[in-house]
Write a structure and sequence with these properties.
The chain is of the alpha+beta class and about 290 residues long. It is built from 8 helices and 17 strands. Strands 1, 2, 3, 4, 5, 6, 9 and 10 form an 8-stranded mixed β-sheet that branches. The protein has a 5-stranded mixed β-sheet with strand order 11-12-13-14-15, with no helix packed on it. Strands 7-8 form a two-stranded antiparallel ribbon. The structure holds zinc ion (ZN).
């Protein structure tokens, strides 16, 4: 589906539906607070019968006159994630869906991962003759240097395979293929499209600012996982590396974009995904925005 905003932004979904109970993703959430929230009566974001958060795992593709830029690469196929049944050894139609949306893998100029968690790097690679090879043969893969150095260090200094092994099967092969570019956290891809540092969820987590001079969007990855965190910006996720810093970053971002025309496109907001932020620090709200 095409999202509103600058250039042409296309969303391709790998997984969408009931995800987990709010208390799993957001440890500060309580049943009472969730039931009292605005999303409790919005089936797009919360299933009141099952008490599950509705979430999406999708890629966003920005097409400008100069470049085709793919942001966040979901979970991927054939990846061994034994502790995560819905991510383990998948064989989904993501690549065919991407091509059907008019974006064949060969057309991608840049891949940008907002951070290097397993659900943001999966389609960086695909399995070919028993080897992990770059899925996007003509792309430069942009990783924030801070982020790549952090997970590389984790991989080298601990016994735990970093991020459910995704460093080994989805990041290291890109480095080995010479297609990775480690960039500063304010790197500009082309005029109007640049990274913005948003540390906390991970050390080198970045937002992508996208503007064509008329409209503006922020592709924010997991800086906000779920609309509940707009009403409750203090709620960091169980997967945040530094929950306190994540909270500070999220609140600053909300303050910057509230009551502006900026469109927010998180990595896990279910359809229709794009929102505008309303209100102020005393209480934030949002409205969904669909392409007119
Ligand atoms: Zn994520």
């Amino acid at each position: 589906m095409h999202l509103p905003g600058p250039f042409d932004i296309i969303r391709v979904v790998e997984l969408q539906g009931d995800f987990r109970v709010p208390e799993f993703l957001l440890p500060d959430a309580t049943l009472e607070a969730v039931r009292a929230s605005k999303i409790a009566s919005d089936p797009r974001f919360y299933n009141a019968e099952t008490h599950m958060l509705m979430m999406s795992f999708h890629t966003l593709v920005i097409r400008t006159e100069r470049h085709t830029i793919l942001v966040d690469t979901c979970v991927g196929n054939d990846k061994e994630r034994p502790t995560l049944p819905d991510w383990h050894m998948r064989s989904g139609p993501f690549l065919a869906d991407l091509a059907a949306a008019g974006v064949p893998a060969e057309s991608i100029d840049y891949v940008f991962c907002t951070h290097l968690h397993a659900d943001h790097v999966g389609w960086n690679t695909k399995l070919l003759d028993g080897r992990w090879v770059p899925t996007f043969p003509n792309a430069k893969y942009l990783f924030a240097r801070t982020e790549a150095e952090h997970w590389s260090h984790v991989r080298e200094t601990t016994d735990e395979p970093a991020n459910h092994r995704s460093w080994d099967d989805s990041v290291q092969p890109i480095l080995d293929a010479g297609q990775a570019v480690l960039v500063d956290s304010d790197y500009e891809i082309e005029p109007g499209i640049h990274l913005v540092p948003a540390p906390g969820h991970t050390p080198g987590n970045c937002i992508l600012h996208v503007s064509d001079g008329k409209e503006r969007a922020y592709l924010i990855g997991d800086t906000i996982h779920h609309p509940l965190q707009i009403e409750h910006p203090d709620w960091s996720s169980s997967f945040c590396w530094d929950p306190d810093l994540s909270r500070v970053t999220r609140k600053k971002f909300l303050n910057d974009v509230a009551e502006t025309d900026a469109l927010i496109m998180p990595a896990h907001f279910a359809t229709p995904t794009a929102v505008r932020i309303l209100g102020d620090a005393k209480g934030y709200d949002f409205e969904t925005v669909e392409k007119g």
